[in-house]
Design a protein that fits this description.
Length: 310
């Protein structure tokens, strides 16, 4: 079993220079991404989410630090030239954009075939068959020969996902893929992502919507170019149960409450009472014993009220 992370980011810093001065988008980010994860990167606009995603895909170069990807082989992204990087990215990573980025003059089928034709991994006949198979996977195959302008936004996003899967990449990267979709369509896209993770894909998704975090297997929060929080969402309930069990172990052992002795019997001779827990409980009120003297006194009081003064 390979214990090394699929993606390893070490002390990555990204500084953009402009006429107004330098702007630091990432400040020494460290991150490990495991195989088969559905990782969410959550943060507000300008927090550094998309910049971090560009570091993963090699679209942009880090000012300092390292990004290592271990898909087919170990690759140090910052050591590749532009041509090597483009070929590696086409074979290793699929990218899904918020704005879909489909070519408007190509049919849906041709859009999905394009990455396969550029990388040359499949023959023309095989790439066509695979493109139809992927459109069938995302349930849009009946529109295969339409242009993107003639289908809905949700359907275009499904095509974009099919295109990202064209070369069977180990990693799928999604930049706000549900940002421009309605909630029902976004839910369908998440269902599709979860199926892909179950089939062995690793997905890294950027979003500004913190309400989506329960859908990820793990998510991190980024602010001002730094990771400020990290959560394993699917293990959250298990963690709560473990904490509760640990808390219960700290309670003292239950003790026996002394039972009140019956008439003519000492406390030592009385049988032990029921076992009760040591933590606070409402104590039952003790019943007062009714004695003969008590009954007589009660009758006197009762008769005294009824007597009229002479």
């Amino acid at each position: 079993m390979n214990l090394q992370p699929l993606i390893e980011i070490r002390n990555v810093v990204k500084v953009y220079s402009s006429e107004a001065g330098d702007f630091t988008a990432l400040r020494g980010v460290d991150l490990d991404i495991r195989r088969g994860e559905f990782l969410g990167i959550v943060g507000k606009s300008g927090a550094g989410k998309s910049t971090l995603l560009n570091m993963l895909t090699g679209v942009d170069h880090a000012t300092s630090g390292e990004v290592v990807v271990r898909a087919e082989k170990e690759v140090y992204i910052h050591r590749l030239d532009e041509d090597e990087l483009a070929l590696w990215r086409g074979q290793t990573m699929g990218v899904v954009y918020q704005s879909f980025q489909l070519l408007p003059m190509l049919t849906l089928l041709e859009n999905v075939m394009l990455p396969m034709d550029l990388c040359g991994l499949y023959s023309p006949r095989k790439s066509r068959e695979r493109a139809l198979e992927l459109l069938r996977l995302v349930e849009i195959d009946e529109h295969a020969n339409k242009l993107p302008a003639f289908i809905s936004g949700g359907q275009q996003q499904r095509v974009a996902i099919a295109r990202a899967l064209a070369n069977d990449p180990a990693i799928l990267v999604a930049d706000e893929p549900t940002g421009s979709l309605d909630s029902v369509t976004a839910d369908h896209i998440f269902d599709l992502f979860e199926k892909l993770v179950e089939s062995g894909k690793t997905i890294v998704m950027v979003t500004h919507d913190s309400g989506l975090t329960p859908r990820f297997s793990r998510h991190l929060v980024i602010a001002d170019g730094q990771i400020v929080a990290e959560h394993a969402d699917k293990l959250l309930e298990v963690g709560k149960l473990d904490a509760m069990e640990e808390r219960l172990r700290t309670f003292p052992e239950p003790v026996a409450a002394p039972q009140e002795a019956e008439d003519g019997e000492t406390a030592e001779e009385a049988e032990p009472g029921p076992i009760v827990r040591a933590w606070p409980q409402d104590k039952p009120e003790k019943k007062k014993k009714k004695t003969k003297e008590g009954k007589k006194e009660k009758k006197k009081k009762k008769s005294g009220k009824k007597e009229k003064p002479e």
